[in-house]
From TrEMBL:
One of its GO terms (molecular function) is ubiquitin protein ligase activity. This is RING-type E3 ubiquitin transferase. The chain crosses the membrane at residues 118-142. Keywords: Glycoprotein, Membrane, Metal-binding, Transmembrane, Transmembrane helix, Zinc, Zinc-finger.
Length: 218
């Protein structure tokens, strides 16, 4: 059974035998308080340990691991007929509890961790979500800034259309009489002029094919 929201408190004693795989020495009577028993894991099932503690008259069983592990197992077994709560703790927690197990009333309290666990999971989920959103937002912001800076740095100089139209233009006439192409090339578009092409005179004193000057922004 689960521990109620108010929790339960009682005196704590180490099991005899320690693994509770044989009949456990009975809980001391006459104190009027609740008695808890600390049991070592191993040699028999969790269910057998808890039933042995219950038969000995204890009101709760604390089973501690016998090995140091990063995570704890879940205690499994047939709960039918078991009416005392049981919890599973780490080896380090068990060793600490054993040092303070003096059998005094109210020295050990077991509280329900359901609400605390749910709240902790909710807080951790929220914090994780905030961190993920912050990382993604920072990445996108840095990426956009880099693309914007890259675009500004590499953008070709822009000349407005009406400025280009004011540049003087001439009709190309081949300086030779052997055909329409005399192998004179535009310095910008690297194409040979054809006889009759309209050319613009650029400020740098080069001439450019009229069609290309209309397509190229600078």
């Amino acid at each position: 059974p689960r521990v109620t929201g108010d929790g339960i408190c009682g005196s704590l004693r180490a099991a005899d035998p320690a693994d509770a795989c044989a009949p456990v020495r009975a809980a001391p009577g006459g104190s009027g308080g609740m008695a808890f028993v600390l049991i070592a894991r191993g040699n028999c099932s969790f269910e057998g340990k808890v039933r042995a503690a219950q038969r000995a008259g204890f009101d709760a069983a604390l089973v501690h691991d016998d090995e140091d592990k990063a995570s704890l197992y879940s205690m499994v077994g047939d709960p039918e007929g078991i009416h005392i709560p049981a919890v599973f703790v780490s080896k380090m927690a068990g060793e600490t509890l054993k040092k303070f197990a003096r059998g005094e009333d109210g020295e050990c309290c077991i509280n329900s961790s359901m609400d605390e666990t749910a709240g902790t999971v909710l807080v951790m989920s929220f914090v994780s979500l905030v961190v993920i959103i912050s990382v993604v937002a920072s990445f996108l912001f840095a990426r956009n800034c880099r693309l914007l800076r890259h675009g500004v740095d590499n953008r070709p100089p822009y000349i407005k259309k009406h400025v280009v139209e004011k540049l003087p233009s001439v009709v190309y006439k081949a300086p030779c009489s052997s055909g329409n192409n005399c192998e004179e090339a535009c310095a910008i578009c690297l194409e040979d002029y054809d006889n009759g092409d309209m050319l613009r005179l650029l400020p740098c004193k080069h001439v450019q094919n009229f069609m290309w000057s209309a397509l190229i922004p600078g």
